[in-house]
């Protein structure tokens, strides 16, 4: 997510030996499963709004919206939520480029907002997203969908929809690549060799 998925997912560089834990067909399958789970839990998804957290969370939200439209036969509102100015590490990191916040035309008030991100790690990114969301409207409820939950939570935050639970050590790295940004769909598990991971 964010301006640098390499940092935020804990990847230290392309030189790391990494093995794929999800490939393109696997990612497509888990997104289909998550879409069905959203419809079931939201009782038809009539009031659902998907908000992706930049960068890769936005692409995942758009893919989920397409799958939800296939299931329900209705267009699904989808947007993006930039959390840059709400992060708790702003003073400790170099300046970040702002991403875009795009809220669907009907707004968020009274809606079920599903936040979408690629990797759930410490929970600090989601805390920032909740703070940002509070400045934009008053949803009926907020849920969280992630492609990968790698553990190591620092805050009491839990995903409602998880593509893959991937237990990791803090020395391991998780990198999500998506075709829209990286030219291919894969999730790579590697070993950290240099800088410490950003908290996600």
Structure description:
By secondary structure, this protein is an alpha/beta fold. The chain has 5 helices and 8 strands; from the N terminus they run H-E-H-E-H-E-E-H-E-E-E-H-E. The protein has helices at residues 5-8, 24-41, 56-72, 124-134, 179-182, and strands at residues 18-23, 48-52, 78-80, 112-120, 141-149, 161-165, 172-177, 186-191. The strands form 2 sheets. The chain has a 5-stranded parallel sheet with strand order 3-2-4-5-6, sandwiched between helices. Strand 2, helix 3 (56-72) and strand 3 (78-80) form a beta-alpha-beta unit. Helix 2 (24-41) packs across helix 3 (56-72). The chain is globular, with a radius of gyration of 16 Å.
- Assign an overall shape: globular
* Assembly context of the chains: single chain
Give the H and E element order: HEHEHEEHEEEHE
How many DSSP E strands? Answer: 8
Major beta sheet summary: 5 strands, parallel
Overall pLDDT score: 88
Binned strand content: 15-25%
Cα radius of gyration in angstroms: 16 Å
Flag low-confidence runs: 1-15
In whole angstroms, the N-to-C terminal distance is 8 Å
Structural class: alpha/beta
State the share of residues found in helices, binned by percent: 25-40%
DSSP helix count? 5
Strand numbers in spatial order across the main sheet:
3-2-4-5-6
